[in-house]
Amino acid sequence: MTTVTNTRELAHPERDEIRLEGILHALSDPMRMRVVRALATTEGELSCSYFVLPVTKSTTTHHFRVLRESGVIRQVYRGTAKMNGLRRDDLDALFPGLLDSVLDAAGRQAGRLGDGV
Amino acid sequence: MTTVTNTRELAHPERDEIRLEGILHALSDPMRMRVVRALATTEGELSCSYFVLPVTKSTTTHHFRVLRESGVIRQVYRGTAKMNGLRRDDLDALFPGLLDSVLDAAGRQAGRLGDGV
């Protein structure tokens, strides 16, 4: 099945348009952090439907959009699936060590509070 | 002059009440980041009046409150001055390397965009 959706390009900031405050805002939500932590554990991409978050579908879509528009993730349509991947290369080039230290902090907190992914 | 204000204790989260999402939210605002970067360059405390931010006084007060309530800074009254200090010990104990990597990222962005403190 070919639909308009399949070929739609989603808007992403270029590397030099990514801002630290946008990244930190994107990562300041527990649901979005959960998505980012899952993406960080995989080499490839994960579909939106892979994630079952305890929020509505529209809220889930909102969270992915915030992550995409801040430059944290890249979203592409592959067939009917919207696939998500961390923009690790861009983030590491702009802010070396930042993503890893945030992921480490999230892992520590999840371990401490017992609310890990 | 002795006033009630002088002895008022401001509410702070204990170390184990500090949450990563609160820290990231607090740091996701450029004005608050400016305050944190200035505090990071001093060993001691800085008064609120030290900071001249391009926002109203009430907005400035709001920013300091967000930083305090998230656990990023400690605020104490000394005489008539409200003094501010980074809670570096608490942050480094909870999330080793996080504060430094965020400060490094902020410095890189300020250098790149030419909007340093």
TrEMBL record, chains A, B:
A Pfam family recorded for this sequence: HTH_20
Positions in coiled-coil regions: none
GO molecular function: DNA binding; DNA-binding transcription factor activity
Origin superkingdom: Bacteria
Domain HTH arsR-type: residue ranges: 12-106
InterPro entries, alphabetized: ArsR-like_HTH, HTH_ArsR_DNA-bd_dom, HTH_MetalResp_TranReg, WH-like_DNA-bd_sf, WH_DNA-bd_sf
Keywords from the named record: DNA-binding, Transcription, Transcription regulation
Protein name: HTH arsR-type domain-containing protein
Organism of this sequence: Streptomyces hundungensis
Phylogenetic classification of the source organism: Bacteria, Bacillati, Actinomycetota, Actinomycetes, Kitasatosporales
